[in-house]
Specification:
The protein has 423 residues and is an alpha/beta fold. The chain has two domains: 3-19 and 232-417, Enolpyruvate transferase domain (UDP-n-acetylglucosamine1-carboxyvinyl-transferase, Chain); 22-229, Enolpyruvate transferase domain (UDP-n-acetylglucosamine1-carboxyvinyl-transferase, Chain). It contains 14 helices and 24 strands. Helix 1 packs parallel to helix 2, helix 8 (234-247) runs parallel beside helix 10 and helix 10 (308-315) runs parallel beside helix 12. It starts with a strand and ends in a 6-residue tail after the last strand. The model has no long low-confidence stretch (mean pLDDT 95). It binds uridine-diphosphate-2(N-acetylglucosaminyl) butyric acid (EPU). Uridine-diphosphate-2(N-acetylglucosaminyl) butyric acid is lined by residues 23, 26, 92, 119-125, 159, 161, 164-167, 188, 192, 305-306, 328-329, 371-372, 399. Uridine-diphosphate-2(N-acetylglucosaminyl) butyric acid binds at residues 23, 26, 92, 119-125, 159, 161, 164-167, 188, 192, 305-306, 328-329, 371-372, 399.
């Protein structure tokens, strides 16, 4: 398994280009199953999660071609069974359920297993499919969906922790080819849901209200091919802003949508950083030690759970006590014990991390546990004294395109040690 080695204490400066959004690209690629025609998707990031999704689409019968950031897919004839050996590698595989049900009126997809950031149920996805007149059952570890006819309906997808992003995506995709009108109440309003809706609209779907808490979909007979460019990854952008805040002098992010980053940029401004926000770029000037912050993760436009770990790393060196409360995935604190191994003073009070700022952290061998936790450890390594060795970096490769190369381009002393078995 590859490792990332970070030698702390080197200031970051310069410009970094943000890649296409992983969490937009995954459901958009799945949505190409809704048509027999060719779809062309640009700005698809080169990530292991994307490779898994392309493998699933190929196994379902689609012709997939990839040339740098552009993926061309034609799913002329498809099977409806997504096998465990690929699906188990990535939880987001569940987002082929909606397109398969919409197009073929049936789907068999292996149920995603446990996840280190907490329980990841799909009850709300199934509630939505059931409302559209599909039956669902779990058999031998698979979710099986079937519908003689898909019929539009009104369904509320708000769960105990708020709306569901992939659940909204899934039901919206199935509903594009249902008979009649579907209304999703309590829908997720994340920019990635809007990006998917925009792609579906280009394919001929009739969708209104994406980006609000109520989406209306009028079913159509069929969808056609379309071309689309995936939005910039707001979480990759937020991670580089946090890196710049931790270790930067002045760093500019290019190809960003600042509107999608308001919660993060507002937090950084509250932390005392100077931000110059333009149409599609953001420059952060670091002021050294941040002021302490109180953050609560919430559905969009609230502070994103996917930035919680990185802000935890930043606030380890704030001038006082910060608190971060996790409301979306209350167990998502695996990075805390690893940051403590680097000297951080953090305690957990229920779903809140209480972070008392310290002036120095020290490099250590640490273990990446999930995607965003790994990013937090790399960020902490940028300012820790000595060397930080981040193990199990396959987690980071799931969601950050060349993070080591991009940070090195900004002046970080960072290298990847390839495992001997790697090809
Ligand atoms: N939930 C349910 N029932 C469901 C679905 C979700 O109770 O049927 C709960 C979850 O347990 C959680 C909350 O609802 O407490 C929100 O989960 P959501 O369904 O929105 O998560 P997701 O769609 O599976 C996406 C992103 C995650 C991101 C979350 C929240 C993708 C591929 N994944 O997951 O991204 O954290 O939304 O914004 O889009 C990441 O990129 O690191 C990542 C984990």
């Amino acid at each position: 398994m590859d490792k990332i080695i970070v030698h702390g204490g080197h200031q970051l400066s310069g410009t970094v280009k943000i890649s296409g959004s992983k969490n937009s690209a995954l459901p958009i690629l799945a949505a190409t199953l809704l048509t027999r025609d060719t779809c062309v998707i640009h700005s698809v990031p080169d990530l292991s999660d994307i490779h898994y999704m392309l493998q699933i689409l190929s196994r379902l019968g689609a012709q997939v071609e990839r040339a740098s950031g552009t993926v061309t897919i034609q799913a002329e004839d498809i099977s409806t069974v997504a096998p465990y050996d690929i699906v188990r590698k990535m939880r987001a595989s569940v987002c082929v359920l909606g397109p398969l049900l919409g197009r073929a009126r049936e789907a068999t997809v292996s149920l995603p297993g446990g996840c280190v950031i907490g329980d990841r149920p799909i009850d709300l996805h199934l509630k939505g499919f059931n409302a559209l007149n599909a039956t669902s059952r779990i058999e031998a570890g698979d979710v099986k969906l079937f519908a003689n006819e898909l019929k539009g309906a009104t369904v509320n997808l708000e769960g105990r922790q708020g709306p569901t992003v992939l659940g909204t995506d899934n039901v919206m995709m199935a509903a594009t080819l249902a008979e009649g009108v579907t209304v999703i109440e309590g829908s997720a309003a994340e920019p990635e849901v809007v990006d998917l809706a925009n792609f579906l609209i280009k394919m001929g779907a009739k969708i209104e209200g994406a980006g609000t808490r109520r989406i209306t979909i009028e079913g159509v007979k069929e969808l056609h091919g379309a071309e689309h460019t995936v939005i910039p990854d707001r979480i990759e952008a937020g991670t580089f802003l946090a890196a710049a805040a931790i270790a930067g002098s002045e760093v500019t992010l290019r190809r960003v949508n600042p509107e999608h980053l308001n919660a993060v940029t507002n937090a950084l401004i509250d932390g005392g950083y100077l931000l110059d926000i333009r149409k599609d770029q953001i420059t952060l000037r670091s002021n050294g030690t941040p002021r302490p912050l109180e953050l609560i993760t919430d559905p969009y436009p609230g502070f994103p759970t996917d930035m919680q770990a990185q802000m935890c790393a930043l606030l380890c060196r704030a001038s006082g006590e910060s608190r971060i409360t996790e409301k979306i995935f209350p167990q998502r604190f695996m990075h805390v014990s690893e940051l403590k191994r680097m000297g951080a003073d953090i305690s957990l009070d229920g779903f809140t991390a209480v972070i008392r700022g310290i002036s120095d952290m020290s490099g250590a061998p640490v273990m990446a546990s999930d995607l965003r936790a790994s990013a937090a450890l790399v960020l902490a390594g940028l300012v820790a004294d000595g060397m930080t060795e981040v193990n199990r970096v396959y987690h980071i490769d799931r969601g950050y395109e060349c993070i080591d190369e991009k940070l090195a381009g900004l002046g970080a002393h960072i290298e990847r040690l390839k495992s001997k078995s790697a090809s």
